[in-house]
Design goal:
It contains 2 helices and 11 strands. It is mainly β.
């Protein structure tokens, strides 16, 4: 999964995860981190340098990372479905775009949150879903203040589903 800010070519963060291989990788800026849960180590590599660190993982960190891997991985704005506000609304969107091809369905999840001081902020996550698998392939994140007419496009996530062999190739490519 790669997260982008509009008008930026490079992702602000990339994540790879394989439950079968028991690994989780993040790349943020110039730092690449591999959590190898099966071998109980965390490896941190600083891109553009020869600096690297290896740390032994505690049982708590392994448990926490496995929980993160079992969760929504940032594919939903809430860690648990019970956290979705009562005012939240799901709706299917009739969306005509070159991005929406091959039967991709589009859904919006909209809700409000109170900011500090009591003002409302309106949030919207737009999901581009492959209906055969129900997997999202793109998620767009929007928000606006009560006084604003239109939502502001804040960021988007591109999601690709990899085989274990592709995941192993990524681990090898990153020199872990």
């Amino acid at each position: 999964m790669a997260t982008f800010i509009p008008d930026q070519k490079e992702p602000t963060q990339e994540k790879w995860m394989s439950r079968a291989l028991d690994v989780y990788i993040t790349k943020t800026g110039k730092q690449l981190v591999l959590w190898d849960l099966q071998n109980r180590v965390k490896k941190t590599k600083y891109l553009g340098s020869s600096l690297a660190e290896t740390t032994v993982l505690s049982d708590d960190v392994i448990s926490e990372t496995r929980g993160k891997m079992a969760g929504s991985l940032g594919l939903m704005p809430f860690q648990d479905i019970s956290e979705i506000p009562v005012d939240a609304r799901w709706s299917r969107v009739d969306f005509e775009s070159a991005e929406v091809t091959n039967g991709i369905e589009v859904y919006d999840l909209e809700w409000t949150e109170k900011k500090y001081g009591g003002s409302l902020i309106f949030k919207k996550w737009r999901f581009f879903v492959e209906p055969r698998t129900n997997f999202p392939h793109r998620i767009e994140i929007y928000q606006k203040l009560a006084a604003e007419e239109r939502y502001i496009f804040m960021s988007f996530k591109e999601i690709e589903y990899l085989s274990d062999s592709k995941m192993q190739a990524i681990i090898k490519e990153t020199s872990f």
